[in-house]
Amino acid sequence: MVTPVKYRMTQAGKDKLEAYSAGIIRNPGQMIDPHVFEEIEEQIDLARLVPGLASTIPYEHFVKALRLALLTESATDTYSVQFQEVARNHDAGWLAAFNDRVWDPDEQTHRTPYFRTLVGMGCDPAELQREMRQAQERTFDRKGANDPASITMFGTNQELLTDGYHGAVAYTLKPYAPLAAHGIFLVKKREKLHTEWYRKMTGIQIEHNPELLANAAYITAHFEMPENQVAPQYAAMGGQYWQMMGQNRAQVVKDLLRVFHQLTGDVHQTGQFLLDVGAEKGIKVRGISVKFLRALLMQLHMTGFIGEVVLQSMGLTYLFQKEEERTLKGGIRALLRGVVAERVGLSSVAG
Prior knowledge:
It contains 18 helices and 3 strands.
């Protein structure tokens, strides 16, 4: 099992994190102007939207999918308090400043296109506002994300998956309500930036204290989307809504693996991270527990090889291929890796 370590950060790491956060604050990119959402309601044509959705997702399910996104985005203040608490407990001024001056005000705009779209689809504004207040009043458990490395890894996972969900909603809406789709695309664009920022913050912390890789792995193994707590009335069907809207599960896994590798860019640490996550989650590969494989592969010093195998099995070889593969030794390693990768796929993983 994976045990998170006590949080420690070198002065060089603190300085780098402060500089990175300050850079984002100076140039956060194009924040969303809420005025772009003002005419969404008037431009939704239910006569086209309802029959148009029939081949993708039933209209009543689509309404619930939008409500789920609305309520999840409405709880920004709840999440923000959690991030600030972690920053305060660990004297992480860089995290507090980023949260207070960029992330929180940015996120405050993300609920608006969903609210306006739902009103345009005939939902009662007062009822929506009641549900939003309920979501904001619910307690949110961050599942062990109690230090800066864990909370930025939590943010990385959350923002990446939220980015994908927003994209699915926007693409579904686009043929029938282009202005609403545009508003949600703007939100998706910001979530993509958030993912990159949190990933980089996590990577800097691991760079300056490699032991924090265990904390990132632990929080990933126990991660669940906040919607499960703030919008339980819709969250149970969230995955199915996403699938109805065209979710490509393989692409989601591929995106996650890419981001995990980019935390450090090192196949040994990627392999260690994936083995730690798999062992903590109780995953099995072709009936063999990852906990057992982790112990064996660590003893054989093969974490780098398994990192390469998993990345190659998902078509991510370009992330680590090097010139050395042109040598005989490198060629043999690549050949063996290919054989193993071909036999290790999503269908062989259970847990």
